[in-house]
Amino acid sequence: MKKLALLPVTLFALSSLTALFSPVPRSAEAPTGKDALYRVQKTEDFEITGDGSSTQWERAEWIELVPRPSDSSTEVMDTRARALWSDTGVYFLFHNQDRKLTATMDEDMMEIWREDVVEVFLWPDESRPVYFEYELSPLNVELALLVDNRDGDLNSWIPFSHTYHGDRLTRRKTTVTGGAAESGGAITGWTAEFFIPYELMRPLNGVPPRSGSTWRANLYRIDYDDEQSRAFFWQPVEGSFHQYENYGTFQFD
Length: 253
Hints:
Elements: E1 10-12, E2 37-42, E3 63-64, E4 66-67, E5 79-85, E6 89-97, E7 117-123, E8 130-136, E9 142-150, E10 153-157, E11 171-177, E12 189-197, E13 214-226, E14 228-233, E15 248-252
Parallel strand pairs: 1-11, 2-5, 2-15
Antiparallel strand pairs: 3-5, 4-14, 5-6, 6-12, 7-8, 7-13, 8-9, 9-10, 11-12, 13-14, 13-15
């Protein structure tokens, strides 16, 4: 597979981002699944910096991602995300508290879910079990998939290299805090900021959204500090991240 050019990973001082990792409590009575609503605010297109410094992010509320209860670790690691939409695509920002970076893969479209990663699942058309999956590692390595899920029988496709250019390309950058962007090193956290163009999500129905449109969606993080994976999610799934019936709802305002 052709290796795609990677954007640089930026290292920032810990002091500049400390405030971003204060806990965000979630109400025990909060709706789950389809009833969980996140209102995605509209924005003009803006530059991806990898640290979420654009003032456009002030429009977006934070989403708290909580640990999967079945995971053995009781360590609290604040994980949160934001989303915005524009006329050309959707923006995401993840802040992940962490203590060790686990990421060795340096080529796009690899199986990066086997290391530290954040993931977004977008399901614009509930009439068909077909959705878009996007993953990004702390090393700014991406995986983009179109997934067909027939009762758990998964078929997926990655963008063909000869067509993955121009208006179809994502924009993404990552930032590691409190240490070097080297696998196995001690860190305090990492940030992922990315833009998914609607052109990349073709031929899904319901794309692009309009004001008032709703998409089903879920957000995840996987961390490998203790060699075994630990998962975080917005809406709870019992096992597979592909349980799309459990996804929450994005409403485009």
